[in-house]
Amino acid sequence: MRGVARGMLRAALALAAASSCAMPSALVPAYQGSIGLPHAGFLVGGKELPKEGEGVRWRSAADSHFGVPRLIEAIEVAARDVAAQRPTGVPLFVGEISAKTGGRLPRHHSHRTGRDADLLFFMTTLDGAPIAGAEFVKFGPDGLGVDASGRYVRFDVEREWLLLRSLLQNPRIHIEWIFVAAPLEALLVEHALARGEPPELVARAEKVLLQPGDSAPHDDHAHLRIACEPDEHARGCIDNGPAWPWLAKSKPVVASTAEIIRAISAPIAPAPAPATSVVALP
Ligand SMILES: [Zn+2]
Q: Residue 174 C-alpha to ligand 1 middle, in angstroms?
């Protein structure tokens, strides 16, 4: 009999480990904020990016724009910084962040925990006049792209660097990755060096900028992902990125057996219906 009980407990623990996170409930109120992994989690208490702010705007009302508050605020600060330094009147367009309660977003692999945001690229005409980048334009290694109307447009490396610099210097977010295509990363780093930016800042940019190997190359938008904060680990946030030296140190909290059993006995959310079309976007 004890063997059977032990077997059931082992199976329950395996189930808890496999599910990677538990729904917050009256029994597990500690799970709050960004819960679980970017590709297997959800969001409690997210904040919505306003539809239009100073230097920032939604790309589309059809997108979801909820995230952990510090991510939303960092995007607003960065957009304001760019607008203050280059007052072009053309905002940053923000694509998908997360749904109100997180979880699966159609066409995305991640974006489930309020720690991922798609930021469209700033762009100009060939003459350097800023234009609204509300669409996904693919830019090649020469920094040129063709918009939906068929005209050539230029990757605005100057404003894109200002945005990146503000995000990198924001003490409230710790960037885990910014997914962009490798040739665009090269343009940004070259520009930063030419501006005489501090070597430490450029080195950090080079580390977090990454063309992902397992999804779209990100030549038409930047995908920002931030790490959990130490206190968020205790509330269910799980990192799967590198332990960059600038990230605040904390040990992931391992749940006790009693907590896991309580979590298992909590109400289980219905499984989401499988998406009909999933493009491999991170
Ligand atoms: Zn994305």
A: 17
